[in-house]
Amino acid sequence: MGSRDFISSLPDEVLGKKILSLLPTKLVVSTSVLSKRWRNLFHFVDNFDLEDSTPLRNADGFSDFMEKTVALLSNCPIKRLTLNSHYERSSVDRWIRSALERGCLELNLQCQYAHSLDIRIFSSNTLVKLTLSSYRTFLRGNVPVEGTVFFPALKTLSLGAVAANPALYNWLISGCPVLEELFIRDFGDYRPTWTRSVVSASIKRLTIFFHFPRNTDPYQDNAEIKTPNLEFLDYSALLSDGSNVDYLDSLAEARLDLRLWELPTTYQFGEVTNLVAAIRNVKTLHLSTGSLEAFYYRCYTMPVFNKLLYLSIESDKENGWHALPRLLLKSPNLQTLVIKGLVHKVTYRCGSACACTIKPKKKELYKRYLDESPPSEVEGRCCLSTCRVKVLEISSYGGSLREVKQMGHFLGKLKYLETVKIGVEEDNNNNSEHLLANLMTLDRASSKCKIQFI
């Protein structure tokens, strides 16, 4: 019985849109030599992934391939185009313009070398998602007439190390009237490429990664965020000299990875008071260890988080829980507390949030040289005994004496606790029963409290 070619028996539209569109474009183009039918199938392909690993000096082959491919696409609609190569500026501009003229919905441009793009090519009534990610991309050109809309359908914009003058950058954002998600990633040894300003009434999700650790110059100006309809914020950066953030009343979730300056001459640089006040309406808040430090040292007025239901913090042995007592006292409706690792730096400032013990002599030094009292004494009450947390989640639990002591502190103080979920370190996965047995011997302030390992 002869073999049957099932693939060739499939309809042209299925072969083109469902199969060939999933393959690298170079491979798709190569199928055109199989037969006349396969050559015609190329017109059903609407997703193109064009990648060249050839160094710039040997890129002629890829350039020729691209020119032939663009010619084949003369009458083809394009749904998604990914362009990742070492190519010259004029060719890139032409290829992008060709894709946008064919109704492209998603454009992903990745440059391996410093590259400049003419702002005039960025005009499309159909584009929904635009990603510019590169070693360093420069937008060039003059700012068009004010009010000109050039991406009326764009909902997602990702900028990775993209440079533009402030006027051009602001025009880029304002030219996207229905933009819902903005992703900015900027890092390296150069000055920042974005203008540290996001102003948009339509943005709902905002992610910013901004990291230049060598000097404070890029951080002298205030970071500006004016996004009244923002629902999600993920912000990672060293502290700026200040911030101009409007109250984010629609914000439901925030992830903050704030970092203090470590150089002796700059460790007191920056503040986060305005930023913290702006996120006071969040329901879910995730804080890195650096953020806890920033909240304690550089936030001068802690707001009340009346809507906060879920708080997640990270721990490491280099930083303490300085801000946790005040955070808990300022979160009257908190229901879930997640702690990623119980091990943290033993410090006088953790107050009633933990079971840290500090030697009397060291305690006196804190009072004498820092002229401060622990948070629990400042507030006049234990932050745990008044906390209404019902669910406590602990990850990376190792079962050390210090961790058991800390768990005893939580269980003995949290009066409304109903569920404790514990994730064990990988090295202790086979020891879960023993770890659970140790915890079951601890006194609990809540008769409803149940402990489970996850």
UniProtKB/TrEMBL annotation:
<dbReference type="InterPro" id="IPR053781">
    <property type="entry name" value="F-box_AtFBL13-like"/>
</dbReference>
<dbReference type="InterPro" id="IPR001810">
    <property type="entry name" value="F-box_dom"/>
</dbReference>
<protein>
    <submittedName>
        <fullName>F-box domain</fullName>
    </submittedName>
</protein>
<dbReference type="InterPro" id="IPR006566">
    <property type="entry name" value="FBD"/>
</dbReference>
<dbReference type="InterPro" id="IPR055294">
    <property type="entry name" value="FBL60-like"/>
</dbReference>
<feature type="domain" description="FBD">
    <location>
        <begin position="382"/>
        <end position="454"/>
    </location>
</feature>
<dbReference type="InterPro" id="IPR055411">
    <property type="entry name" value="LRR_FXL15/At3g58940/PEG3-like"/>
</dbReference>
<dbReference type="Pfam" id="PF00646">
    <property type="entry name" value="F-box"/>
</dbReference>
<dbReference type="Pfam" id="PF24758">
    <property type="entry name" value="LRR_At5g56370"/>
</dbReference>
